[in-house]
Amino acid sequence: MIIGQGVRRGDGVPKVTGDALYVDDLDIEGCLHGVTIRSPHARAKIVSIERSEAFDWSGITVVTADDIIGENTIYLMTRDQPALAESEVRHCHEPVALIAATTLEKAKEAAEFLHVTYEPLPPLLDVTQSKTSDITIFGTDNTFKEITIKKGDHESVTEGTLIEGTYKTGLHEQLYIEPQGMIAIPREDGGVTITGSMQCPYYIIKGITDLLGIEKSEMNVVQTTTGGGFGGKEEYPSMLAAHVALLSQASGKPVKIIYERTEDLQATTKRHPAIITIRSRVSDKGRLLTWEADVLVDGGAYNTLTPVVLSRAVLHVTGPYHCENYNITGLAVATNTPPNGAFRGFGAPQAQFASERHMDRIARVLDLDCIELRRRNLVVSGDETATGQKLYDPGAHTVLDAALSAADDLGALRSISRPGDGGESARVRKGRGVALAFHGCGFTGNGEASLQARVSVSLEGDKVHIQTASTDIGQGVDTIFCQIVAEELQIPLDMVVMDSHDTDNVPDSGPTVASRTTMVVGRVCQRAAAGLLELLREQSGRGDSFEVLVRERQSSSSLRVEEVYAEEVDMVWDEKTYQGDAYPTFGWSCVVVDCTVDQDTGEVRYDKFVSATDVGRALNPVLAAGQIEGGSLQALGWATSEEVVLDDRGSMKNARLTNYIVPTSLDAPEMHTVMVEIPFSAGPFGAKGIGEIPMDAPAAAVAQAIESAIGVVLDELPMTPERILCEVE
Amino acid sequence: MKIDFTVNGTSVSADVDPSTRLMDLLRGTLALTGTKNGCSEGECGACSVLVDGRSVCSCLIPAFQISGSDVVTVEGLAGEVLHPIQDAFLKHGAAQCGICTPGLLITAAELSAQEVPPAASEVRELLAGNLCRCTGYQKIIDAVVEVVCVSS
Amino acid sequence: MLAANFTVQSAGNLAEALRLKSANSELQPLAGGTDLMVQGFKNKVLDIHRLDELRGIDVTDSGELKIGALTTFRDIVDSELVQAWSPCLVEVARTIGARTIQNRATIGGNIGNASPAGDSLPLLMALDSRLVVASELRGEREIPFEYLFEKYRTLNMNPDELIVAVLIPEITKNDHTHYRKVGARSAQAISKVCLSGRIRIEEGVVTEARIAYGAVGPVPMRCPSVEAALVGSPVDPQVSRLVLGDITPMDDIRSTAEYRNRVAVNVLRAWLEYLAR
Question: Model-level pTM greater than 0.95?
Answer without folding.
Answer: yes
